[in-house]
Amino acid sequence: MASRWKSPIKMTAKQVLFDYKIYDIPVTAIPKVLQGESIRLVDVYVDDDSCGMYCIVGNGRMIYVNHNMGQGRRNFTIAHELGHHFLGHRLNEYCRIYRSLNISTHRKDPQEVEANYFAACFIMPYELVMPLFNEVVSTLGFSKDNAINASDKDQLQASQEVIKQVANSMMVSQEAAFYRLKSLKLLKSQNGFSELNL
């Protein structure tokens, strides 16, 4: 059973998709959402682990995103920062900084975890991921609607292919696709993303 905190966040993401009439790949609608929420997107050039930042300055709302990231990671970061906005998170002074997921304190911050979950639900909704998953696994000869196991050497190649297809179709990083498939219980893995050799 999903944690109780996940349900309202998933519903918030669904509501945003509904309100903005987003029925296809959500990443392509991010500019429309930013405009509708009066949020300005600003690229910054930094060489640290910062991914993005959501700020409110006076009456203005801004999302700063590190330009040095790949496009898939950038898309997830913008959705993460939108999560802070739509979930009404408390800002540190006037900003929330989103750093690399490798920082252990970041993974424990409830608001960062919630913003990550919002981002996953928003840009990789179940309704789009599930048919894509079924199509890929049936093409590879596996049973539809059943999880595949990345820890099983006989299913490793199928796992890699599903991750790549979801990442490409949803326009996110393969790492984001891996974690989304795991959270939807479509992918089992005893190892982390880095061990998949993608």
Question: Could you characterize what this model shows?
Answer:
About 50% of the residues lie in helices and about 15% in strands. It has about 200 residues and is an alpha/beta fold. The radius of gyration is 17 Å and the shape is globular. It folds into 2 domains: about 120 residues, Orthogonal Bundle (Arc Repressor Mutant, subunit A), CATH 1.10.10.2910; about 70 residues, no CATH class.
Question: Main sheet: which strands, in order across?
Answer: 1-3-2-4
Number of continuous helical runs: 8
| Model regions low in confidence, pLDDT < 50 over at least 5 residues | 101-105
Which structural class should the secondary elements be placed in? Answer: alpha/beta
Q: Name the overall outline.
A: globular
Would you identify the CATH architecture of the largest domain?
Orthogonal Bundle
Radius of gyration: 17 Å
Mean pLDDT: 88
> How many structural domains?
2
Q: Return the string of H and E elements.
A: HHEEEHEHHHEHHE
How many strand units?
6
Terminal CA distance reads 30 Å
Helix percent band: 40-55%
> Could you describe the largest sheet, including whether it forms a barrel?
4 strands, mixed
CATH class of the largest domain: Mainly Alpha
Give the DSSP E fraction (strand runs of 2 or more residues): 15-25%
The CATH topology of the largest domain comes to Arc Repressor Mutant, subunit A
